[in-house]
Design a protein that fits this description.
Layout lengths: L6 E7 L1 E2 L2 E7 L8 E2 L2 E3 L6 H13 L3 E14 L2 E12 L11 E8 L11 H10 L5 E5 L1 H4 L4 E4 L6
Length: about 160
């Protein structure tokens, strides 16, 4: 079986009432654009752990993955690119603050989404849909398997 190089990105989606936690980029090609806390997966890192790491790096808060809201896939000049948007619950009492790579963090109400300059239409769609859908549940079978083993599915039935 041959291996395929893949660009793997992740985001943390945190919903609070009718708002979603967004970050405004402070540098790079998307400076001034809004999106979810996001980044790339490092070698040897589970995608869900990368989403939590990016959340800590960009917003200085910790959370727990509770599921998946969306998966985006496309082809680039280097091969497939996959982006996983995880549902995350913040640990109690935490307040997001911007890091050096982020200009602002804010829980933005869906009514203000049209006013924002977004990183991408896909990012806006993920944030919008997160307010209207239930994410796939994450079941952790790591203890049974003896290594990281996660199942994301519609519903939380354990076998």
């Amino acid at each position: 079986m041959s291996r395929v190089q893949c660009d793997l990105g992740v985001a943390a989606v945190i919903v609070k009432d009718d708002s979603v936690l967004l970050v405004k980029e402070a540098a790079g090609r998307y400076i001034g654009h809004w999106g979810l806390p996001k980044g790339h997966v490092d070698a040897g890192e589970l995608p869900r752990d990368a989403a939590l790491r990016e959340l800590r790096e960009e917003c200085d808060v910790s959370g727990k993955v509770t599921g998946i809201y969306a998966i985006r896939e496309n082809l680039t000049e280097i091969g497939p690119a996959v982006f996983i948007a995880y549902s995350v619950e913040l640990e109690p009492g935490q307040v997001p603050v911007a890091s050096s790579e982020i200009a602002e963090t804010e829980f933005v109400n869906v009514a203000k989404f049209e006013e924002l300059q977004w990183v991408s239409t896909a990012m806006k769609s993920i944030a919008t849909n997160a307010l209207m859908q239930t994410p796939f549940a994450t079941l952790d079978y790591s203890d049974q398997r003896g290594y990281p083993y996660l199942l994301h599915q519609n519903g939380d039935v354990k076998i």
